[in-house]
Each structure stands twice: as structure tokens, then as C-alpha cells.
Amino acid sequence: MRTTALALVFSAVAFAQSTNPIVLHAARVLDVESGKMIAPGEVLVRGERIVEVGPSVTHAAGTETIDLGDRTLMPGLIDVHVHLFLHVGAEDLQTVKESVPQRTLTAMLAAKDDLMGGFTAERDMGTEGAGSADTAVRNSINKGLFPGPRLRISGNAISILGGHEDAIAYNPAQHIFSNADYANNVTDLINVMRQQYKEGADFSKIYETGRDSLRNGVYTSTYQYTLEEMKAAVQEAARQGKVVAVHATGEPGTGYAAKAGVVSVDHAYFLSDETMKIMHDKQIYAVPTFAVSDSRSGESGRPNANLDFHITQFKKQLAAGVPMAAGSDVGPFPHGTQAREYVSMVKYGMTPLAAIQAGLLNGAKILGWGNEIGALKAGYYADIIAVPGDPLSDITALQKVAFVMKGGVVYKK
Questions:
Q1: Other CB atoms within 10 A of residue 160 CB
Q2: Strands (E), 233-314
Q3: Domain limits of the chain?
């Protein structure tokens, strides 16, 4: 089975961009920005870009038409929190037992699975101990050597000694390495960030909170970096035209991150009223990562007090106007199945349109491609999927992607 999967990855050269214009025709086209459906709808693609969108577009001589029938054409899905270097199984042991080359090959398979699941752009939130190996994954995809989404990558996450992902549960005599890069003060932070950028990172992921707990309805979380340290990290990233995203589950770490001006607060189980206001005012995105919590809750079959707490807080965050983005934390559950994040966001309080807009419009902004992906508009990349029925009526349609185009290349039909 593994040999077959690798063979599929290495056959990426079979996917080629058409030399002729392509018209995609379907029963509906979703205008994500307005929330309106164009019925019927067509999208004209030339090369890697969209040229025209409407009920009927130009059909010049030599144009190839792909009729997708009773489906909805919409922008490719975006996931701003993935782990390409993780797969189903014991997360910590993967980083101990599997070599970086082996994990890189696995990441390539994961990238292909995500693309075939309809995800045409992603943010890889840490290689979990594989260092800058994600640079090779991103670059190989960009060169057309392998199929996969557009990627923004971070290399390893950054954490403190004894902090999150520091192999705390292992025999100290074995000297098991942390899954993150150590930075214990401002000087360390800046040095680590500069090294990661040198090795190809597009942004920095920082573990701003460590151990957390929920007792008697009270959520507590240990911060890892002070406000001053977070500000220094954000300033260094900005100096190089980059951003900082944080793993942050609760206060005061979530508040420090928001005050410092990070691009997103991922997980965001608990945000104070002050932090919610800051995030609203500064348009800092919360990324709830429900999918991974749902998957773990489903596996155990037991009530999940932490998830219930998060759902309650999520509804408060929505009411406070905190901007959201879709990030699944995929890796611990199978790659290519993370459209369940959009489904969960609707299940826990958003409308289907709001969840799609959060995932696509806000996701594109987080990735720095706000004027190039996330909508079907002339001049945008031709990152297009087709799903059955109407996703504004049934969000689970996103879990049934029947057609995938990225940059004008058809990968699934």
C-alpha cells in the first residue's frame, strides 16, 4: 500500500497545465464575498489565473469545457493549522522513531492527500522536530515536482526549556530532543527566528502557553513568554516582512500575544473580555482547531469537558466579534479529511457562509495571499473545487470534493 502511495506522489509530472483556456461549468458558482450563488455558473481559466466568472463566460476557439453538472464551484479550501509531518498514531514517538527523511516522505504524502481533499492552500504549523525539512516540501511543490497545496511554513515551533513539546515525559538519561527550538529570552528568540528564516521559514510559530487545566469550570494556562518577549518576537518578524502565530490556549498568554500583535491565536480555548476586544480591534484571528478535539473525543467515546468549555467560549468569542479562521490541527487524524473543521465551526455556532468566509477570506489574509486566493475573481489564482449540492445549505458538502484545480492544473476530476 505504501509503495502504491509513493508511486502516486512521484507521478506528479502527470499533472500538467493546459495550453488552452478552460471553462468550468456547473449548476452553481459561489461568490464567497457576497454569499450569493450564480446559477448556472462558469469560470474561465487561462494559465494559472482566473480570467472571468459569471453565468456565462467567453468560449473562444480552442477552449476546453469541463462540465461538472449539479455541483457548486467554489474557491479551494484553506487550512491555516496543519501538521504535514505528523500522521495518525503516537505523536511523540513518531519524532523519536522516524528519521527526518522518512518523515519528509510522509509529509509529501500528506500534502497530496490534503490537496485531493480540496485544500489548495495551507499553513504548516511546525514540523514537530523535523527542523526546516518543510522548506523542501514547499519548494518541491512550488516547482511542480509533487502535488500539494500552496504552503506557508515555519520549520520547528519555538518554545522554552521544559515547555510545551519538550519531551517532558521521557527518561532524562536518554536525552530525547525537544520537538521545538529552544528560546529562553529575547536574544534567543531573535537568534532562533533569524536562523529559521535563513533556512526558509515564511513565519514564526511560538508556543506561548504550556501546561493547562480545567477544574471546576476554571481554565488555567501557564504562559511561556512575557509580553515584552512577545513584542520583541513580533517586531523581529515584522522587520523581515513576516508574522508570528502562536499556540495559545488561555490567559494571560493569549492576552500577551494579542497585545504584541500576532497574526493569529491558535486554539484560543479561553480569551478574556479585554483580549477579545483587542483581537476584534486589531483583527487578530482566533483559530479554534475543533477538528482535532472532535477526533480525540470521538476516539475515546467519553464526555469531553475541555471541548464543552471551548464551545461555550467560542460562542462568546463570536458574539464579541473576534475574527475567526479555519485551522484543523490535522495530523493526529487523517490528512485530507480536515473539512470537518468547517463542519464543526457550523455545528458550534457559525452559519455555513460565515464559516466558509472565515476559512477562505480570512485564511487567505493570514497566509499573505489576500488578493490572490480565497475567492473566484478575475486575476486570482485558479484554485477551484467543486462540491455536490449547495454548501450554504449543507456544509458537509465540503467533505465530498469531486473536483480539484490548483493554479489552473486539474488534480482531481
A1: 21
A2: 244-248, 264-267, 285-287
A3: 2-76+375-412, 77-367
Reading the chain (413 residues) residue by residue, the pLDDT tens digits are 444 444 444 444 457 777 899 999 999 999 999 999 999 999 999 999 999 999 999 999 999 999 999 999 999 999 999 999 999 988 888 888 999 999 999 999 999 999 999 999 999 999 999 999 999 999 999 999 999 999 999 999 999 999 998 888 888 888 888 899 999 999 999 999 999 999 999 999 999 999 899 998 889 999 999 999 999 999 999 999 999 999 999 999 999 999 999 999 999 999 999 999 999 999 999 999 999 999 987 755 677 899 999 999 999 999 999 999 999 999 999 999 999 999 999 999 999 999 999 999 999 999 999 999 999 999 999 999 999 999 999 999 999 999 999 999 999 99
Return the CATH superfamily for domain 2-76+375-412.
Answer: Urease, subunit C, domain 1 (2.30.40.10)
Task: Tell me the C-alpha distance between 8 and 265, whole Å.
Answer: 36
- Residue 129, CA distances (Å) to 25, 46, 93, 138, 288 in order: 44, 40, 11, 17, 23
Q: Which CATH superfamily is domain 77-367 in?
A: Metal-dependent hydrolases (3.20.20.140)
Q: Can you tell me the distance from the alpha carbon of 161 to that of 180, in angstroms, rounded to the nearest whole number? A: 10
Question: Could you report how far apart the first and last alpha carbons of the chain are, in Å?
Answer: 23
CA nearest 246: which of 107, 403, 81?
Answer: 81
* pTM given for the model: 0.94
How do the residues of the chain divide into helix, strand and coil, expressed in percent and rounded to 5? 35, 25, 40
Decide whether 2-76+375-412 matches 77-367 in CATH topology.
no
Distance of CA 324 to the CA centre of its chain: 12
Four-residue CA torsion sign, 276, 279, 283, 288? negative
Report the b/e string of 318-336 with b at 16+ CB within 10 A.
Answer: beeebbbbbbbbbbbbebb
Amino acid residing at 232: A
**The three cell numbers locating residue 351:** 452559519
Cell numbers linked to 220:
488555567
SS3 of 97, please? Answer: helix
